[in-house]
Amino acid sequence: MNAVAESNEQLSQYLLRMGDNCLILSQRLCGWTGHGPTLEDDLALSNVALDLLGQARLWLDYASSLHPTKRSEDALAYWRDAHEFRNLLLLEQPNGNFADTQVRQFFFDSWHFLVLTALSNSTDEKVAAISTKALKEVDYHVRRSSHWMLRLGGGTELSRSKLILALEQHWNYVGELFEMDELEQEMHACGIGCDLGALHAEWLAYVNDVLGKVELALPSRTPFQSGGKRGKHGEHLLSMLMEMQYLQRVHPGAQW
Amino acid sequence: MVNQQASTERIWEWLSGIPDPEMPFLSIVDLGIVRDVHWEEEQLRIVVTPTYSGCPAKSHIDASIRNTLLDRGIEHLALETRLSPAWSTDWLGDVAKAKLLAAGIAPPMASEVPMRKLEYRAWSIATPSCPLCGSASTTVRGEFGSTLCKSLYVCGDCANPFEHFKCF
């Protein structure tokens, strides 16, 4: 493999991480369509899903253009098996109840905001353009999910107890968000990626600030689950992909 | 083809006749998504900047541009999608804002300064005036409306619900 092909392969893997995060969370959120607790929230969750799907297309389209076999963005979405997906474990967690969905969203949106802010200064022009564009949308998402932390935490005893449980359950997956593995390090070193470790303190400060407004705090234990970025997923992703990919696999090339 | 090349002014006029599929009372030029039109010898280049990444109308708009120009005899078209600089509702002109108001949709206010640092922000304190009675006493009911680009409000005076074209 020559140097250009190798660096393209690395960038393509990095773009898959960004794109798969958006795609998998988008698909999860689509599960709320028609089931939202109120019409307004049904619309909001579906629209956040739509934003993320649009972002997923931008990342996957770029990834596919670098791929030696030029698999299209659709092929990347529908014809990869679970171990080829590079999304964070947090995002494949089932929707659970409304508090579970909002906590997953809150952890991700605040992280996504920081990552996209950093990537807006990427040395790769396309990465910078996609990030700047997506950041405007995520600015809106993070405000919404943060607002829900306050509403659920400061709502009824029931909403508060469900929020506390959801924070407990999703906390295990947060460590992976800031993990600098070999690929992240190389992308950071060449100026395309960013230093996730350096964003950790800012993320914690923000999340604690929001939760502190309703006198809640993050669990004190160290989050320990990771592997999604390297293709090691839990069973939840499998059943989700079966649903997401079913039509294309049974009727290859089917179109609306 | 021996036809003389249409002037870019003419082409802008034709593009002004293409409606946005979701809000057909606005044209794609009103929306500010057409960024550039110019001839590169025999080929016409049109640069379009999408509104939201996930806007489902994008492919429809691209097809409308191609078809409209093909009908006018322009066969060699390069349609470029440009992400940067990102689209902003500040690109909507006064004409577009008046059309929105006439359709009962509160037009976008000047876009907020984007959040540079991650810090808690309540939903914007400034709310749009009611497009129906003009009252300034309105409250947000939903962060999104029937399309990605809108949010839902209710008027405290005339009690009507209305949509607001979000600042973006």
TrEMBL record, chain A:
<dbReference type="InterPro" id="IPR012347">
    <property type="entry name" value="Ferritin-like"/>
</dbReference>
<dbReference type="InterPro" id="IPR009078">
    <property type="entry name" value="Ferritin-like_SF"/>
</dbReference>
<protein>
    <submittedName>
        <fullName>Phenylacetate-CoA oxygenase, PaaI subunit</fullName>
    </submittedName>
</protein>
<dbReference type="InterPro" id="IPR011882">
    <property type="entry name" value="PaaC"/>
</dbReference>
<dbReference type="GO" id="GO:0010124">
    <property type="term" value="P:phenylacetate catabolic process"/>
</dbReference>
<dbReference type="InterPro" id="IPR052703">
    <property type="entry name" value="Aromatic_CoA_ox/epox"/>
</dbReference>
<dbReference type="GO" id="GO:0005829">
    <property type="term" value="C:cytosol"/>
</dbReference>
<dbReference type="InterPro" id="IPR007814">
    <property type="entry name" value="PaaA_PaaC"/>
</dbReference>
<dbReference type="Pfam" id="PF05138">
    <property type="entry name" value="PaaA_PaaC"/>
</dbReference>
From TrEMBL, chain B:
<dbReference type="InterPro" id="IPR056572">
    <property type="entry name" value="Zn_ribbon_PaaD"/>
</dbReference>
<dbReference type="InterPro" id="IPR034904">
    <property type="entry name" value="FSCA_dom_sf"/>
</dbReference>
<protein>
    <submittedName>
        <fullName>Phenylacetate-CoA oxygenase, PaaJ subunit</fullName>
    </submittedName>
</protein>
<feature type="domain" description="PaaD zinc beta ribbon">
    <location>
        <begin position="128"/>
        <end position="166"/>
    </location>
</feature>
<dbReference type="InterPro" id="IPR002744">
    <property type="entry name" value="MIP18-like"/>
</dbReference>
<dbReference type="InterPro" id="IPR052339">
    <property type="entry name" value="Fe-S_Maturation_MIP18"/>
</dbReference>
<dbReference type="InterPro" id="IPR011883">
    <property type="entry name" value="PaaD-like"/>
</dbReference>
<dbReference type="Pfam" id="PF23451">
    <property type="entry name" value="Zn_ribbon_PaaD"/>
</dbReference>
<dbReference type="Pfam" id="PF01883">
    <property type="entry name" value="FeS_assembly_P"/>
</dbReference>
<feature type="domain" description="MIP18 family-like">
    <location>
        <begin position="9"/>
        <end position="69"/>
    </location>
</feature>
